Every structure is written in structure tokens, then in C-alpha cells.
Amino acid sequence: MTSDKPTPQSHTTTVKKLMFVVVGMFAFGFALVPLYDVFCDITGLNGKTNDEAVAYTADGIDTSRTVTVQFITHNAKQIPWKFKPLIQQIKVHPGEQKVVKFYAKNQATQAIVGQAVPSVSPGIAAGYFQKIECFCFERQPLQADEEVEMALQFYVDVDLPKDISTLTLSYTLYDISEKIASL
Amino acid sequence: MTTDTLENTEHHEEHHAQPSGIKRWLYTTNHKDIGTLYLWFSFIMLLVGGGLAMIIRAELFQPGLQIVEPDFFNQLTTTHGLIMVFGAIMPAFTGFANWMIPMMIGAPDMALPRMNNWSFWILPFAFSILIGSFFMESGAPNFGWTFYAPLSTTYSNGSTAFFVFAVHIMGISSIMGAINVIVTIMNMRAPGMTYMKMPLFVWTFFITAYLLIAVMPVLAGVVTMVLTDTYFGTSFFNAAGGGDPVMFQHIFWFFGHPEVYIMILPAFGIVSTIIPAFARKKLFGYSSMVYATASIALLSFIVWAHHMFTTGMPLFGELFFMYCTMLIAVPTGVKVFNWVATMWRGSMSFEIPMLFSIAFVILFTIGGFSGLMLALTPVDFQYHDTYFVVAHFHYVLVTGSLFSIFAGTYYWLPKWTGHMYNQTLAQWHFWCSIISVNLLFFPMHFLGLAGMPRRIPDYALQFADFNKWVSIGGFAFGLSQLLFLAVVIKCIRSGEKAADKPWDGAEGLEWTVASPAPYHTFSTPPAIKDE
Ligand SMILES: [Cu+2]
């Protein structure tokens, strides 16, 4: 197996092959980004919910079960808004439609565009939380001191795994004014 | 095989008049010189990283904030980790590889000597940037050596650019070093040196080099994403822009777990070289050692999420990563049993390299067991981010990797310098180290089990006593390393002349050349005897 004549050429071939691995692995690191998205989309692993409205398909309401849906909100870094759910939690039967309201007020002295990003915990339940209408599908431009009530219409899929009786829906509000401006 | 092929194996370029002084070291392409540079560099980094640890332990000596601000404390833990991982442990092993691999396989030098020079000389720049950031307006990186987003992106203190630049240079250096090792081993073995005749250190570093070229580019990718997220408005890890901070952890640990084997496989190689020499027996289960090393390396790619059990994975994921992680205990166990079996009924003697190797086997196994505990998903929820984790990885990295580096240095120092070192002083180094290192890290297990979180400058009162002992152990261990410096410097300067083969049980081509090893060795390939 030993090559008894190590020539510069044979080194060059080996180096080329190895550089191919290096470049390939660098690309692989970036390929993980879309792969991760696809993987999470299929498994609902990261608690991401649908980002487009779904139509309500009534497969019947399962009145034998009651699921508690809790709402929490966070303001991402320094966005000077008041942002809160009007009710903390609601009990629903799987398959049943509900509308809940969120309150937002821009407390800054200038207009700000906000974007709320939803996340469901436990993550595995995210695929069963269906939003028919949500303020998170759109940007929220608010003038200084403007306030608004925003609606979320949703239902919980009847196929929600039996062992899950409580869902927490968290909204994180981001200031995207700068991003919009730079577009 | 035949001798007529030998003369054209390597055209030794005409011997240049060797430049002297600093130029000799700047321009050198000699594998021994570069090995020496790597080893000294890593020792300096050990002292710098150790110095930072001393400040950390001084702050933690008692509860409350005495010496440093919390933000500076975070900078200390971050740079301590980065310097020890990328500056001390990894370059030390590359130093061994440079010095020993060509001599062990009967090659005249590394395959790509000029690249070798580059891969060393960019390292001091990387660490100057990293350490220099302490003196800049932003301060040094404070987001932990794992630089989790959004700590390193949204909440960065402004040091992210320096950090990313430094890591890129370190990565390029490691990749170049790894390519050099692989090309050397594949193309430059002496005739008759088949793969399965290679010394185990060569094997372990060969596999390590593959790990390096597989995961260092992924690290380069993830730091690039952090850089663009922080400064160029991308949203890889920013939920507002459709990214996901948890994805950072997935990509980081895809690099991070193989990285821990990058830091331990060469240690396995060194210990597997030393134990047979002082047990005066052949290494038990040579081929099983090779296969165990390879399977550890392969498994290391599918266990990364054991660092992320608390991020809310589905049960299936937690079970998968738990079982895969525990599977690694099998090849690792094979290694430990092989070392013990090698010592079993051997005519053992306890010279300094052997002392460090035996300490390695025992203490690394303790670190392995605490790793096994951490691999258990349900209990990891308790241990996660506590001092138990700190205890675990310091057992594997200090009493594991670092002790193997000491063992290897004491083993090959006579070959490098041509002198025997002062055995008494080295004994002192060993005993001071082994006592203080256990005082330093063992109580951390209990602190972690009792709930003390890692990366904090202050702690609850009930942890005070243990922390005091840990700090005392830390100072003692730090000071003990000055003994090591003394032994090495004395050995370079003077000492009784070392024989070509100072250890009677030692095997390998490196002992067939003179001590100190001549500047050029194996310009003509040696004959490999068939066993
Ligand atoms: Cu790991």
C-alpha cells in the first residue's frame, strides 16, 4: 500500500481531494439552515406555527376534551410598546373556533413598525395549533401614542396528541422599522 | 522492500546556510522546529489561559463580588475557554504531530513544509486579536466560548467581529495543519510501513485530522453567520427575521462534539504509546484500538444534541441522542480495558511519563463516567449548566488531554533536547499536580449536584466552603505548572546526556535516531522489519 515515490504531484492530488472536503463541509454548514427549516416544518420541532392563514375545516368538535390555551407576550429588545393579551387563557374543545384579542400601544414619540412572531410550547403541539386569522401575519405600523386591538382567530386540531392538555402561545414583538426602511 | 527506489524518494534540497536568531524560527520549514514552536506557543497560552482562571478562582474564593465586575467575569470565562481549547490543547497536539509523525513513519519531513510554516505563524495573530480585545473599548468576548446566539449577536458587547476574525484564523490554521498530517501519512510512510503497522499516535492523529477538516469548516460557517447577523442584518438566528436561535446550537454543536474528540483522540494515542513502554509489554489489542478510535470519531457526528436536552426536543430526539451518546462508552471502554490489560502482569516501572499516563487512565475514566451521567436525558435536566458540567469537562480536558501532553513531553523530552531531565523536580511536578488538580475539580461535582450554576461571579452562601477549597486547589495547580516550566528549561540547558533510547521498553522509529534528534532525520527511509 505504501507509495514508495512521494512526488509533489501525488501530494497535490491528495490536497485537492481534502480541499474538496473542506469546501464541502463549509457549504454543508450553510445547507443546515434550509435543512433545519424543512425538518422543523415536518416535525413541528421548533414550535413554529403556520405563517399563512388556514381555512377552518370543521371535522367536528371533540367535546369530550378540553384544552387550555395560554397567551403570553414578550417585547424584544427595547421596543417601547405596551403589548399584552386581553385574556390570559381560554379553554377550548379541539375543533372549536375562538377569537381572542391582543392590545398594543406605541409609547414612543415616533412611528414604529412592529412584527409579532408566534411560538407554541410544547413544540410538538405547534403543528396542531391552527391560525385562521392572525395579526402576526402582517406588520403592525403604529403612530406615536396610537393604540390598537388585534385579533387572533384559531382552533386546535382534533388530532392533538392526547397527553397534551395545555398549550402556551407566546408572541414576541420585534421592532422592524429599520428593516422596512432599508428595503 | 527494495533499496533501489530509495535514493529518489526525497530530493533533499541543498542545505541552505541555516539562518540564525529570530529568522530561523520565522522562516523555518523544518517539522522539528515547527513542532517546537507549536509546543512553546501552547505552553504560553496555557499560562495565559491559566492566569485568567486564577482571576476567576480568586473572585470565586468567597461569595460576593470582590475583585471583578460581572461583565468582566464573563469575559474571563469566555476567553479562558477559547484560549485553552484553541490555544493550549489543540496546538500542543499539533506540536506533537509535527515533531513525532514524520519520525514515527520514517519520513524526512512533513509533506507540505511551507504550508506548515504558515499554519503555525498565523496562530499568534489570531490570539493577539483575541487577547487584544481585552484592551479595546468593547472588552473581550463575554458570551461564553460557545457564543450562543443571541448573546453573541443581538446582545453582543461589540467584540463579535474580533472574535469571529480570530476564530477564522484559528480554523484556517487547524485545517492547514490537518491537511498536512493527512498528506504526510498517506504519501510519505517509509516502505513497509503499512497502515496497520503505524504507531497508535499516528493513527489517532490521522483520524483527528479527518475530524478537523470535517468540522472546522462548519465552525467557520457558523461564526460567519454570527458575524453577518450581528453586523450585516441577516437573520440566521433572529426570530424576527424568520431565523431560529436554537438552530445556532444545532450547528455549533455539530462542530462542538467532534471537537471534544479532536482534543482527546491524540491523548489516547500518546497514552497508548507510553503504557506499553513502561509495562514492557506490547499494547493489548492494537487493532481494536484503531477500530475503537475510528468508531468514536464516526459516532461523534450523531450525538451533538446531548448538549441541548433542555431546549425542548421531542421525546424521540432525546432518546436518540441519549442512546447514541451512551454508545460511545463502548469503544471508549474498549480503550480503557486495553490499557489496563496492557499493564496487567507487565513488568511495570513508574517513571514520570508512566505516572502521568496512569493518572490519565484513572482520572479520564472519572471524567468519562460523569459524561455518561450527563448523557442521561432525565438527570441532565438537573445537571445542565451547573458546576457538574464544569467538573466533567475539566476532568476530561485537564486530567485527560493536558495530562497526556505532560506525559508525552516527559516521554519525548530526552529525544528533543538530548538531555535527561531532573527526575526529582518532575516527580514534584507530578505529585503537586495530581493532588491539587483533584482538590480543584473533584468538589465541583458536589457543587453542581447541589445546584451551583456555572458562569457566575457570585453564589449562594451554602457553596462557600467548597468554593474556597476549589480555589486553593486552583492556585496550587497553577503554581505547580511553573515546576513543569523549570524542568523543561533546565532540561534544554543542561542535564545528563540522554541515550538514543532512554526508556528500555520504548518502541518506535524515533528511538533509532540519535538524541537529540538530528535536524534532518530519515532522509533515506528506514527499513521496516516484519514482525
Ligand atoms: Cu458532546
Outline:
With 183 residues, chain A is α+β, with helices and mostly antiparallel strands. Chain A contains two helices and nine strands. Chain B contains 17 helices and no strands.
Q: Provide the low-confidence segments of chain B as ranges.
A: 1-14
- CATH structural architecture of the largest domain in chain A: Sandwich
Largest sheet of chain A: 5 strands, mixed
Structural class determined from secondary elements of chain B: mainly alpha
CATH class annotation of the largest domain in chain B: Mainly Alpha
Subcellular location (chain A): Cell inner membrane
Main location (chain A): membrane
Transmembrane segments (chain A): 18-36
Protein name (chain A): Cytochrome c oxidase assembly protein CtaG
Protein described:
- The complex is a heterodimer of chains A (183) and B (531).
- Chain A has helices spanning 8-43, 177-181, and strands spanning 67-75, 81-85, 89-92, 97-106, 112-121, 129-134, 140-142, 147-156, 166-175.
- With 183 residues, chain A is α+β, with helices and mostly antiparallel strands.
- Chain A has 2 domains: 7-43; 47-181, Ctag/Cox11 (Pfam 04442), CATH 2.60.370.10.
- In chain A, the strands form 2 sheets. Chain A has a 5-stranded mixed β-sheet. In chain A, strands 2-4-8-6 form a 4-stranded antiparallel β-sheet, with no helix packed on it.
- Chain A is flat.
- Chain B has 531 residues and is mostly helical.
- Chain B folds into 2 domains: 32-254, Cytochrome C Oxidase, Chain A, CATH 1.20.210.10; 264-517, Cytochrome c oxidase-like, subunit I domain (Cytochrome C Oxidase, Chain A, Up-down Bundle).
- Chain B is 65% helix and 0% strand.
- Chain B has helices spanning 22-27, 31-59, 70-105, 113-121, 123-132, 160-187, 200-231, 245-262, 265-279, 286-299, 315-327, 329-343, 352-375, 377-383, 387-417, 423-449, 464-493.
- In chain B, helix 2 runs parallel beside helix 4.
- Chain B is globular and about 65 Å long.
- Residues 1-14 of chain B have low confidence and may be disordered.
- The interface between A and B is large, with 44 and 49 residues.
- The complex binds copper (II) ion.
- Chain B: This is Cytochrome c oxidase subunit 1.
- Chain B: It is an enzyme of class 7 (translocase).
